[in-house]
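Much of what follows relies on a compact textual record of a protein's fold. A record is reproduced here so that you can trace the correspondence yourselves:
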Amino acid sequence: MLQRKINLCLWYRYRIRCYQNEETKGIVNIMRRKVQEFCSNNTRYRKITVIPFDNKELSLNIEYKNIPFDIDELNKKSKNEILNIYKIVRNKNELNKLPSDFLDNLFECTKKYIRCLLPYEIVKIYKTLNILKKNNKDLNLLLHQHIKRIYKNFDIISISKLFQIYTFSKSKPIYIIKKLSETFLNNLTHCNKPWCFREVISIYSYFKINSPEHIDYIFKKCVPIIAKNIMMYTPKDTTIIFYSFVKMNKYDKILCHAITKNVILKIHLYDFNQLSIILNSFAKIGEKNNKLCKAICDQIKNKMKTGKTNTGLGIHSMPSSSKLEPSNIKHNGSNEDDTSNFREKKLMEMKIDDITKHDEAIIELNENETECKQIKRCENKNDLLENRILKPKDVSVILNALIKLEYYNNETFNCLIPFIINNICKFSPQSLSNLAHAYSQIHIDNTLLFDKLANESIMKIHKFKNKELSNLANSFVRLNIKNKTLFTYIIDEFLYRSTIGSKFQTYKFDILSLQQFAYSFSKVGLKDEKVYNILYNTLIKKIHEIKKMKKKNKINEQNLLLGNNKNQTNSCSDIMINKNTNSLLFRTNEMVEKNNFDFFFISTFVNSYSRAKINHKNFTHFISYIIRKKKQNNNEILSNQSLSSLIYGLTKLKIQDKKIYQLLLKECNEKIDSLQPFQIALILYSFSKLKIYSYKFVKRSIQILSMNIHNLSLTDLSLVCYSLSNFLYRDIIFLYKVQKIIFINNYEFNKTNVCQLFNSFTKLCFYYKPFYDSIFQKIFAFMHEFDEKELSNLVFSFIYYFHMVILQNYANMEKATTPSVIDLNANGHKNEITYVVKNQTDKPNEEIKIKPNTSSKIHTFDEKIEEDTVINNDSKHNKASHLLRENSPNLILKNKEEFFKNELNIFFNLIFILNEKYRQKLSLISIYQLQIVDLYLRAFFTNYFSFPNYLKSFFFKCRNVKLKIDDYVLLSSKMHRNISRYLNAVGVKHKSEVIFGPYQLDIVVDFLENDIKNKFNLNFDDKMNEENHSNNVIYKRKGLENEVVVKKEYKEKYNVIEKLLTKNIVIEVDGISHFYKESYSRTLNSIIKNYILKKFGWNIIHIPYQEWNQCYNFKTKLLYAIHIFKKILHINRDTVSPKDFIYFMSNENGFNQQSTNNNDASENMSHTKEESNNFMDQDMPIKNTDKNEKTEQEEEKSIPDFYTIDEETIFLNQIKSRNMFQKNIMKKLRKDGKMKYDFNIVRKDNKTEEIIELSDQNSKTDIET
């Protein structure tokens, strides 16, 4: 019973302590009465009263009386007494009462006791020195020496206190710190105080002590203990420990997890300054924790909500908690009323009830105590949140850290906007730039906020650092906010700092800030060359500074290595010098890493200069030099983003350096599998603009793009199609996929996409009626938005479309007449490409096989009809043409205007807009295109003169513009010049690059000569020479009828006869650009040119590059030229007499050989007289007719090396440029039979039957060898 009474008494006393408020006076009085009754009854327990007494004041006064002022008396004092004096002196009021020289006397007196000082006594002395901010060098030196002697005897608390004093006093004894930290770590088992760890860790980061061994040892020892006892640590300890570890670049998952745990569970105790430091340190190491970010964001939101409620109710502070909802926060006053009513009811119950019911009352109070505690905790948290101040710097740091961690919480950013606007004057320049950067990264474009930021930054523009200024400009540009006043101030400040202010240390730029300035200036639209020249000059200066820094680092490192290798005793001064050099090296390495001019910076500079359209010669040379150096010497690797942007920037700058592009193309081929689809599209577009084609890269890129075609946007698709059309790479399967994806996804088109897709699909000859119907609708919608270049390209693409439809209908007609597969080319090929084409009347899909043409020919529909009517007069062809006319698609030929009614309507509208808007601003390229369109319309449409008058007048004006080309030889290719030389040698006199409207005809035949026998010393019989001596004939074309080709003197002397050629002949040299890549099919551009020239009465002879490249020596090229001569004779067979060129048949055995018999020559003469027409149609094979062995050997010698070369010579030629290792491997492979050369080899046993055969079987517009 007694024990129960005692417990009850103790409980009442506890309740008295808890309820010492005004609201609980009644409860306290009742409890006091009951305690008095209980105490009066029990005489054994007596009340003991404790009177409070402060010993400090008394002790100070007593000790002050014992302080001597004289040095002699101070010397008589003991060690403890002097230490007590140090304590008294800490109080400034007491110190002022003492004389001025007292401290110096005190320091002199302590010197004799230094060797007998204990560690905690040393700390006391240092503490007073730190408080008084007095530094006595002699005393400090003696203390340091004493610490070096007894550092092992220091305990953990004294070490931590001493480190704390060092940080405050900014004294940096590195050797002592290292030794004391070693003793601290050795005695770590006895330490349980968090602040001790804090001081040891923080001193290394604060003084930037470069000692990796000690830092690693501290990290290994301290982190497990910190993680184990993390909940014991205060917010101050955790922030300092984590910040210092991050600064020293030492962290792991255990530490990060422990810090996050402490922050989340004790977040109501943290200040916003501490939260900002912790979050910023997490952002530096790149460790993202969503729970931590969410807890900090919630804390900020609750703080902003309390501010709103305070302003609404007019109260200075209002409690709010992170766990409470906004509805609960509004009704905090009602919660307080409920608690007060609850307590009053309990008091009334206690007055009425007897003492016997104490147990029940205690139980009820214990049950309801938890509710009261929870309410009080909420009130305490709200009070703590109210008392915490949210500073502008903390806001900027937190938001910037959230952006770095990629935690995009729009609510926190939006709720802080009013706070930022109201307190914008309190933000520093650094915080202003950080705010702008954060809001630009999250893409929150609040006009009021950014206006305030711009105005405040203009006011403080001189206080900004270079990094902050560049960051501010870059963030405004990222949101496309082009504030003219702000950017004028920024540009002026940049110009001042880069010219006059470059002398000052604070105004020195780093490479990152220069890169951001270049990007922002180009995005704003600044096109002042002076600014970009200054930017370029500052960049070069900075690069030279970095080079000097690197050289100094190398020299210092070498000196350090030499100093370490010397086996001699170093003095203290040498040790200090080594330490200083180590620290300098550490700093310079950091500076070099920050200012590293890598490929990302190069790409941004190139893109910014190309965007501003500034072609600075020195800049282009510098960029090409840097890229070469980095790739060839250093072999630096480019990131995918920098690679794509660099190539795109170089194309815009138009830097013509093939070596750079070869290096970048090699890099693209290596990295193509890791590139993103949009990056591949950008690289393809840039290479197509540069006209750099790589089959391997293009093929692989199309494979990757076709696999990821669903991830591509419409702009990427249009760019890829446009680049393929520039490459002339015709991949019909990919184009079919593109149009399918466009139909499925229903993309939103813009004018550039429409223009690019229509140009590329028509140029690559891909026909699909529904796709073009949708494109025509888009063209009609964006008709008035196209610029001059786009309108001219669209108008030019319409002629591709018209001709493509004709080709397609012709293919359908031939398919209907013949069951075999349509071959648009003349000859077949093994590789076939199948693609799906739909008819106009929505018929089921049909597969059409297109085979590449070895003879490099595509017949148009009109060409076929001409050939059927003029050349071939057989009954089969007549029947086929009759069937074609009866078919419905053949109606296109009769009434093309009716068939293309809708397309012509759009076409006329485009011409009208081009005429009205841009007739005075047309570029030369667009005039060239319009001249071709004019020629095609007049050739294609029979009712051209019934077209609108504005169209005819517009094309008439375009037709009158004439382009003057002075040096045609420069424009012609090497192949063209070579062919021209051989044709002149044969006797085909011609003109090169003859202008015919917009076209330049390669070779136009002027006249023919028959003096080839005199040039090449062809030996004929005497009779043959006598008969043909009088026949010196010149055939000139109709245009030269009135002109004198040969002078009268030579005419009379050599009996020259002039005759006329009735037909105009053009020899077209077909290079690579006349064919689609990796195929033998002609491009639509080449087909249209052929079609127009034929319509205007030209007879065309084609020389494809595939055939000319096979003629590798003089003899074969000359034979090929003779064959062209024969083609010309065949075309003009009505007017040319074969007698004038009989020596072609008589000299069958080749050049420099005698004819066998006179009878053979006379037989040939009579044979040609009888059959003159057959002569023109026959081929001219060169055969071995002689039977003697000598002539056979001579003929074998005259055979080209390409046919007589044996396997051994091929093998020796291949291993010429190899090294010894490769040569041995190739020889072994040849011995084993793994390396064979079965092509182009003639066996020595067999005789060659035919060397070269130039056939003229079809003798149409193409040549077949």
